[in-house]
């Protein structure tokens, strides 16, 4: 009886245990698969919500913030430009030989103009209305400190302080500097032709004290540079560093290096104006080839020659030997051909 009962219990309960185990395993697998499915659905929902709602809203907010900042910059730039033009007009009307001359004019400070002669000599002085005595630097040099320059007893209202801050925006005057008449002249043959754009590239105008981002455009008749800086400064030629030059007045184009990279060009015109332009990599040669392809009538050297070949083609050494040019003129032209420039001190 005992073996038979043991066999019966084993057959009955073992089979039911296997069935119950299989049932619970199936329930567990179904629960885990449904949980994973729910997690996948939640992840897909979050991703879809992010793509359809959050990312467009973030992009729209970023675009609106950029637009608002751009509008503020344009308004500030416009106000600054109008203020500088207004002050230039006031200086024109109150200059010593004008209708409303100031009877007690302030002391005039002078600086060296950027206008050059053919020998690259700068012989002209222009009023420096942005003169700074650098008293703070002198005080720091003499170990006096910058605090002694400030008078704590003086207290100005906010409006007067703002007016005093605005009055410090004294720059070079525009009225005393005549615009070059060569910019408005053109050959009759070119006036009958339609001006076509040849090349347009982003670049940087390199000056002695600043690097001005902008865009260079070369057409069949003119060379344009558009100042792309957010806050334009008042220069000897106007507000900003924009310029427009007839292509027929281009005298020389030299390949230059900027920060040890062969990426720059220097343009020389017949009125002794010169511009140092830096381009992106592999753009300089394209612009150079386009300018040479237009064959400016007054250009002296053609072709991508080395400095040695340019010196030989110019005949400067022979002129110097025959005493047709002075030692200074020979050295200045030699330095120009070798790549030295006033515009880039490095």
From TrEMBL:
Signal peptide: none
GO biological process: intracellular protein localization
InterPro entries: BEACH_dom (IPR000409), BEACH_dom_sf (IPR036372), BEACH_Domain (IPR050865), PH-BEACH_dom (IPR023362), PH-like_dom_sf (IPR011993)
CC terms in the record's Gene Ontology section: cytosol; membrane
Domain of life: Eukaryota
Domain BEACH intervals: 305-346
Domain BEACH-type PH: 192-292
GO terms of molecular function: protein kinase binding
Gene3D superfamilies assigned: BEACH domain, Pleckstrin-homology domain (PH domain)/Phosphotyrosine-binding domain (PTB)
Keywords (A to Z) from UniProt: WD repeat
Keyword Oxidoreductase (UniProt): no
Pfam families reported in the protein's UniProt record: Beach, DUF4800, PH_BEACH
Name used for this protein in its record: NBEL2 protein
């Amino acid at each position: 009886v005992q073996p038979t009962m043991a066999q019966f219990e084993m057959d009955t309960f073992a089979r039911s245990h296997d069935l119950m185990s299989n049932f619970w395993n199936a329930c567990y697998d179904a629960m885990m698969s449904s949980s994973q499915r729910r997690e996948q659905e939640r992840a897909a929902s979050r991703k879809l919500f992010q793509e359809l709602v959050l990312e467009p809203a973030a992009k729209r907010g970023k675009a609106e913030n950029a637009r608002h900042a751009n509008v503020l910059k344009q308004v500030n730039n416009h106000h600054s430009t109008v203020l500088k033009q207004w002050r230039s007009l006031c200086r024109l009307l109150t200059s010593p030989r004008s209708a409303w001359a100031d009877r007690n004019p302030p002391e005039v400070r002078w600086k060296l103009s950027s206008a050059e002669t053919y020998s690259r000599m700068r012989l002209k002085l222009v009023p420096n209305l942005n003169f700074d005595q650098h008293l703070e630097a002198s005080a720091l040099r003499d170990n006096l400190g910058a605090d002694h320059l400030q008078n704590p007893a003086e207290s100005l209202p906010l409006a007067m302080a703002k007016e005093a801050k605005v009055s410090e925006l004294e720059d070079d005057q525009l009225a005393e500097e005549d615009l070059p008449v060569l910019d408005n002249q053109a050959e009759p043959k070119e006036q009958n032709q339609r001006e076509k754009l040849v090349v347009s590239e982003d670049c940087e105008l390199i000056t002695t004290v600043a690097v001005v981002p902008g865009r260079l455009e070369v057409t069949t008749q003119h060379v344009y540079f558009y100042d792309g800086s957010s806050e334009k400064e008042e220069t000897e030629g106007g507000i900003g560093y924009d310029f427009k030059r007839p292509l027929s007045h281009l005298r020389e184009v030299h390949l230059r290096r900027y920060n040890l990279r062969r990426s720059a060009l220097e343009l020389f015109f017949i009125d002794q104006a010169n511009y140092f332009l830096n381009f992106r990599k592999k753009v300089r040669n394209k612009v150079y080839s386009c300018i040479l392809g237009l064959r400016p009538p007054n250009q002296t050297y053609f072709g991508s020659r080395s400095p040695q070949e340019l010196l030989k083609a110019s005949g400067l050494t022979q002129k110097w030997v025959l005493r047709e040019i002075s030692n200074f003129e020979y050295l200045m032209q030699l330095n120009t051909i070798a790549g030295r420039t006033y515009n880039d001190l490095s």
